[in-house]
């Protein structure tokens, strides 16, 4: 469990710099340059991500079950992860109404993803992993909205075509992951 927690602290800690120390982040980027900052950010994040994967894998070998969710929760989680994938796609598809309305769909997608996994899984490792991501995503979203308000950020209006493309891309990505990649990469077939 310690490896999982160390990975979460490393990965989410790096991703929380903008939430808790945005001025420091700006100073470091100016001091070392954009490329060096991004390289360091990426390397630390990858180390954290690797520790999360390793630590979660070890925790799954000897799980501490806190509760056993009903089978229906897997189906609810599947539906919620579909929404999460659409939100993730909306982050990258230009001029879609989802991003125009929500402004930061990626962290909202992480929020929905984490909540869905908390519904469907009941081990201590699941609570630590997905609960940590849920708290981080909520804090990240609130911080991003605050930055938007302070900067007077305006998002371009979405178009029907962009919105349909975001929903379609998210749906296709969800199908690939739910029906094939989740089992291949995670070892659990959600459907």
UniProtKB/TrEMBL annotation:
Keywords on record: Membrane, Transmembrane, Transmembrane helix
Coiled-coil portions: none
Membrane topology term: Multi-pass membrane protein
Subcellular localization(s) per the UniProt record: Membrane
Pfam families to which the protein is assigned, alphabetical: NnrU (PF07298)
GO cellular component: membrane
Source superkingdom: Bacteria
Domain NnrU: 4-190
Transmembrane segments: 37-59, 71-93, 113-136, 157-181
Name of the protein this chain belongs to: Protein NrnU
Organism: Noviherbaspirillum sedimenti
């Amino acid at each position: 469990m310690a490896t999982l927690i160390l990975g979460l602290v490393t990965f989410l800690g790096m991703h929380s710099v903008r939430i808790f120390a945005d001025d420091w982040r700006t100073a470091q980027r100016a001091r070392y340059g954009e490329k060096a900052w991004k390289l360091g950010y990426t390397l630390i994040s990858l180390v954290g991500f690797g520790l999360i994967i390793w630590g979660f894998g070890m925790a799954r070998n000897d799980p501490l079950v806190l509760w056993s969710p009903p089978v229906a929760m897997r189906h609810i989680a599947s539906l919620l992860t579909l929404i999460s994938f659409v939100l993730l796609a909306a982050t990258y598809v230009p001029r879609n109404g989802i991003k125009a309305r929500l402004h930061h769909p990626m962290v909202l997608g992480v929020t929905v993803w984490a909540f869905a996994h908390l519904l469907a899984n009941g081990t201590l490792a699941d609570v630590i992993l997905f609960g940590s991501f849920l708290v981080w995503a909520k804090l990240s979203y609130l911080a991003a909205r605050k930055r938007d308000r302070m900067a007077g950020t305006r998002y371009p209006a979405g178009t029907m075509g962009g919105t349909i493309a975001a929903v379609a891309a998210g749906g296709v990505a969800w199908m690939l992951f739910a029906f094939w990649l989740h089992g291949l990469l995670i070892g659990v077939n959600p459907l």
